[in-house]
Write a structure and sequence with these properties.
It comes from Providencia heimbachae ATCC 35613. This is DUF721 domain-containing protein. By secondary structure, the protein is mostly helical. The chain has two domains: 92 residues, DnaA, N-terminal domain (GMP Synthetase, Chain A, domain 3); 33 residues, no CATH class. Helix content is 65%, strand content 11%. Helix 5 runs antiparallel to helix 6. The longest helix has 26 residues.
Length: 173
C-alpha cells in the first residue's frame, strides 16, 4: 500500500507542470508574474491611486495597467514617468513602456467595496452617536423634573443613553 496524505493543490500543480511544458504551465507562470508585478506597481503608486488601478498584462516588454475611469487615467499618466523609471531600476530593466487602459469594472468593484465599508462605518458611528456625556444626561434629568409627563419620559430615555452612570443619578434625583 502506498502512503497517501493530503497535499496542497498548488504543490500538485507545480509538480505536474514541472514535468511537462504545457500551455497551463505558461498560463500559471504568467499569472504569478502579473500578481507579483501588480504588487510591485501598487507599492510604487500614491495611496489614492492604488484601489483604482491594477496590472492587467505584461507582454513584449510593455505593462498594461487598467484604471477605473478617464480621470484616474490622467492622474496615472502624471505618475507614468516616475513609475517607469522605478520599475526599470528595481524589477524590469527591459521594460519599454506602460500602456494605460480604462476598465469601468474596476470602478464598480471599488464602489461595491466602499459601500460595504461605509455601511460598517455608519453602523459603528450610529452606535457611538447614541452615547451622550454624563453631564448632558444630568442636565436632561434636571430638565425632565420640570417638564410635563410625555416630555419627561423622553428626556429620561435620552439621559439613559449615557449608560449606567446616569441610572445612578436618576435613582438619586
Amino acid at each position: 500500500m502506498r502512503d497517501s496524505h493530503p497535499q496542497a493543490l498548488f504543490d500538485v500543480l507545480d509538480e505536474s507542470l514541472a514535468k511537462s511544458s504545457s500551455p497551463l504551465q505558461l498560463i500559471q507562470r504568467n499569472a504569478k508574474a502579473i500578481i507579483k508585478l501588480n504588487k510591485a506597481v501598487k507599492s510604487l503608486l500614491p495611496t489614492e491611486i492604488k484601489p483604482m488601478c491594477r496590472v492587467a498584462n505584461y507582454r513584449n516588454n510593455i505593462i498594461v495597467i487598467e484604471v477605473a475611469n478617464a480621470s484616474w487615467m490622467t492622474r496615472l499618466n502624471y505618475e507614468k514617468i516616475n513609475l517607469l523609471s522605478a520599475l526599470r531600476t528595481s524589477i524590469l530593466p527591459s521594460l519599454s513602456s506602460i500602456d494605460i487602459r480604462i476598465n469601468p469594472d474596476l470602478m464598480r468593484k471599488t464602489k461595491q467595496n466602499s459601500s460595504m465599508n461605509k455601511q460598517t462605518v455608519s453602523t459603528k458611528q450610529n452606535m457611538s452617536e447614541r452615547r451622550i456625556s454624563i453631564e448632558t444626561a444630568q442636565q436632561l434629568l434636571r430638565l425632565a423634573q420640570r417638564s410635563p409627563k410625555g416630555l419627561k419620559e423622553r428626556f429620561e430615555r435620552l439621559a439613559a443613553l449615557a449608560g449606567e452612570s446616569t441610572s445612578a443619578t436618576n435613582r438619586k434625583g
